[in-house]
Amino acid sequence: MKTTAAIGIPKLFSCQFEGKLLDAFPFEQGYTPASAEAYIDFVKQELAPQIVNVAHPRYIGHMTGPVPPLMHELHGCMALFNQNLVKLETSGIATHIEREVIGELHRIFFQKGEEFYKYYTPDPDHCLGNITSGGTLSNITALSYALSKKLSNPEDPSASINNIGLLKSMVNKGYTDIVVLGTAHSHYSMNKAMRLLGLGYQSFIKIDPAILKSAEGRGMLSGMMENYKKAGTLVLALIGVAGTTEAGIIDPLEMMAEVAAEHDVHFHVDAAFGGAFMFSDKLADKLQGITQADSITLCGHKQLYLPMGISVCLFKSPELAGYSEINSHYQARKGGIDLGKYTIEGSRPFSAFIIHGVLRLIGKEGYAEILESNHDRARYFGELVAAHGSFELYNTPELNIVLYRYVPTWLRTRVKKGTLSKTEQQELNRLNVIIQKRQFDKGSSFVSYTEIPDASGSGERVVWLRAVLMNPYTSPQDLQEILQEQETIAAAVIL
Amino acid sequence: MKTTAAIGIPKLFSCQFEGKLLDAFPFEQGYTPASAEAYIDFVKQELAPQIVNVAHPRYIGHMTGPVPPLMHELHGCMALFNQNLVKLETSGIATHIEREVIGELHRIFFQKGEEFYKYYTPDPDHCLGNITSGGTLSNITALSYALSKKLSNPEDPSASINNIGLLKSMVNKGYTDIVVLGTAHSHYSMNKAMRLLGLGYQSFIKIDPAILKSAEGRGMLSGMMENYKKAGTLVLALIGVAGTTEAGIIDPLEMMAEVAAEHDVHFHVDAAFGGAFMFSDKLADKLQGITQADSITLCGHKQLYLPMGISVCLFKSPELAGYSEINSHYQARKGGIDLGKYTIEGSRPFSAFIIHGVLRLIGKEGYAEILESNHDRARYFGELVAAHGSFELYNTPELNIVLYRYVPTWLRTRVKKGTLSKTEQQELNRLNVIIQKRQFDKGSSFVSYTEIPDASGSGERVVWLRAVLMNPYTSPQDLQEILQEQETIAAAVIL
């Protein structure tokens, strides 16, 4: 046997920095290795200057924004706690805090009564939602759990899809095909979900969002569901988006919820970006109908300003996750409180701590203030673009994403009349891509771009500059100067 | 239009704490809200005392250990950088650092030459691995990408499984069924993967690990693959485990790799726990054959001591991820460097920063020291248990997980002779479960338990206490006292 001295504590393991909350940690502190200072230098001098400054007020290109500086401490603290939410034995009170936080978010979206939360929030045999590492995983979770439910077999669990797989399960249930309905502007994570679940991209049916929103929307949607049913095809789910990634558009959630319910179709709302507007009593109306969803994706790292890697999938029914419960012999056992039995992920960080913290430090009111200012900022920028002769506005922003494009003098009339030739359209696309890229390369401002099908239905794609107004530090002057810079770049490109 | 003053910066957004690296951040600092102090108090006085102290030297029950205190700063820093690795426009140098880090890990496991890494590490059209949020997701990634490759259709991508789904793809290729081969001690995340991919739990074929390791192992495995093929069943993958969750056992990786290669079956090694032993030149031999794997899961939050939520799935072939490439119009475009096109997850944190940091601050040598001491610690504990009259050792630990059980005086002879009756066996199980639970409840030490099928093949399950020796602070004296406490508890239970 080795003696105590021979085993010892490896010195390199215990090197440390300082932190304000460190004395909350119950374990010994070690020493600072010589190389730590060198690494700090690397971070300060090489790394930090070359990351993308997503916190900059003129970085308005993506759904990645600044995080409040308190995240440094909360996140660092989470790291040192190092709780693993897969089970109680590695998480203790953290498991209860995760349930509490999910209950609080569930209440904001589904607005059930006090008794509901009193019973279901802590109940080991029920689950109101999953904290996941991202929106894609939240969307995958929703579709996967809906599928497990739809192709479950309560009389004989050994004949459920979970056990026998998709193919045999479809044969047993008599389905010839399975589709998911969404719109052409659904997030591309739906493709990832369709691939993973074995359904395939082509079974994600993309409805024209404009028709869906029109007076014919309800009839069309209902008719589609009817026809699929007649053909022996299972309509697994209908996907609504609350704040599309490309343009921040909100699908007609209420109508979709009603039609889905009529046809017993799972209604999932991808509110990864827009869901945060539920925190504002003034703006929550924009998401009318979301309360009727069967499941909702909300990303903490979007408009809750949490650090990257924190998302939630909320389930209206506390029973849904039960259809996908998985147990093992050493944890997540049947009947236990361990959260691991209800999540796709296994070991998971104590992200609930960050959500718990911001709900108390920023709070619903704090978020309302931020979200309302984002909305104001987008309206302001939309008006600025519309009033500016050199730019065309795509539409009045519904939330806080503004699409627009630069139009050179000689094309302005034809743009207004909608009489651009195909060649001119392509030229305009190229010009806007160049403007976007040059501005990014210059590095003082950043707007992204996207491509959206031409409104005429010609199949042509139109490039639009895309501004996501979610940085609380972005001022009207920043926005004016961003446009100015784009105009200057355009002038240089045209010359 | 609103004026500058009317939009402003919401005050609640910009509250902050302090941190040593904060001045590396390019954005403005805000103020500390009144409630921050109250929340710090809550963390110190209520939360911290009630989490599970996974860093305690006598917390040896799970694969969740202490993290070096430097994680507080690195993790906090990652949070404030808030880079999103889905694309270059939200990550800049972080995308390149992620590729660098994956290349470094790939080299440790697959040991390709300098030219290989020079070309493939930075190449936008290839991918050597994914950084994921956990081992389950890494395992899912490996199986999903293997499936996309196996059922791809290079001549007509529109007829690939990604597009047409599992059912139609199987029909096209003429497969009647798909199975994955593993052993009875594979991690339960394989069930999650089988469910997600539409294959079902029952298509995960569990080989007896003892037979696999025996002289008949190779013949049996090869015969199985042959028979499945004859029956029109696709053997998608073979799963080897390097350090099983329950007992730290290593499958015969080399033989498995050879048989898989002969039958053109994807060989995935789940080295979530044991993979870190590759950092030690002394102990790497234990994983003989891992270099021939097609993909490998390694969890940073296990024996690399990173905070929860950092795992890697490494791909031997730089082409594998290409079969699952997904693009969109606003990011992860074809031909671009954006990592999002090759990952199941979308938005992802800059976890590569943490790995980058520890590879420089702790380094391969530092990890070797830690891993070797873990191995010593397990050998020591195994010897301690074996020499102790009141306990039975399950087997000589291969890595650093030790299984054992308490045996009361009157059953010791029958345990040694292997003549326990079914009732006595169940009584012994119950006793050990009680000991484990009481020790957890007392709160000064923690060992977990698991259930493993009886070696006789009777189908009976045996409860074993399970010690994971991965805490560098655990001393021989801690281990002695843990056993002592269990004996004391047992005595009280028996009385």
From TrEMBL, chains A, B:
Native organism: Chitinophaga sancti
Classification via PANTHER family: CYSTEINE SULFINIC ACID DECARBOXYLASE, GLUTAMATE DECARBOXYLASE-RELATED
Assigned protein family: Belongs to the group II decarboxylase family.
Post-translational modification N6-(pyridoxal phosphate)lysine, affected residues: 302
Record-given protein name: Glutamate decarboxylase
SUPFAM superfamilies: PLP-dependent transferases
One GO BP: carboxylic acid metabolic process
GO molecular function: carboxy-lyase activity; pyridoxal phosphate binding
Cofactor(s), by name: pyridoxal 5'-phosphate
Keywords (A to Z) from UniProt: Decarboxylase, Lyase, Pyridoxal phosphate
Any one cellular-component term (Gene Ontology): cytoplasm
Pfam families, A to Z: Pyridoxal_deC
